[in-house]
Amino acid sequence: MAKSGRVKRMEKHHRRNKGVASLNLVSLMDIFTILVFFLLVNSSDVEVLPNARDVQLPESIAEEKAKETVVILIGDEDILVQGEPVAKVADVMATKGNDIPALRQALKSQNDRVLRREARDDIAGREVTIMGDKDIPYRLLKKVMATCTESDYGQISLAVLQKSSDKLEDLQASR
User: Fold this and answer.
1) Residue 129 maps to a domain
2) What is the pLDDT of residues 50-104, one digit of tens each?
3) Which of 12, 24, 34, 56 has the smallest set of CB atoms within 10 Å of its CB?
């Protein structure tokens, strides 16, 4: 039986492509090398604070970098410690006194988990960073800070955005 033209073409095509396919590894190695260098360059010692879209941080001209600490985020409705809600802002504002028991308990539980070994024993060396909107009431900030000191945290920092050098020069020129 005679083979059709189509069958002959298919056999010819299969014979021609019978060899093993090869993969060009040089290009792949170049891509991975570039990726490794990119990751190494961009993995510096910068603490990444939680990103809260509803929190607008105040600006500062401080040049010292933040250290890794326990982070308290004061949102519109909740107070969070290390990303976990511990108290409602409305409840805290309604209470009298400067103590927030739920926040104190959460901070005490963070002593062993987050803090460095040296800071666990040294109360003055324990650090906490408060991240809050620039428009939060001072009374709420005062309660949070008082609770931090009652929870044996010796250093309290406020998270701020660093002003650019252009804004700093404008500020100095206006004085």
Assistant:
1) yes
2) 666 666 666 666 666 556 678 888 888 888 888 888 888 888 888 888 888 888 8
3) 24
- Beta-carbon contacts of 106 under 8 Å, excluding residues fewer than 6 positions away, are 81, 84, 86
Statement to judge: residues 24 and 76 lie in one domain: no
Q: How far is CA 39 from the centre of its chain?
A: 17
**33/25 Cα distance (integer angstroms):** 12
Return d(Cα 76, Cα 123) in angstroms, integer: 30
Structure tokens at 138: 């001072």
CB burial of 29-48 (b: ≥16 within 10 Å; e: otherwise) equals eeeeeeeeeeeeeeeeeeee
pTM to 2 decimal places: 0.56
Provide the angle, in degrees to the nearest 10, between the axes of the packed helices 138-150 and 101-113.
50
Query: What gap in Å lies between CA 19 and CA 159, rounded to an integer?
Result: 63
**Which structure tokens are listed for 124?**
């003055």
Query: Which sign does the torsion angle of CA 6, 7, 13, 17 carry?
Result: positive
3-class DSSP state of 152 = coil
CA 63 to chain centre: 19
CB-based burial label for 109 (10 Å; 0-12, 13-18, 19+): middle
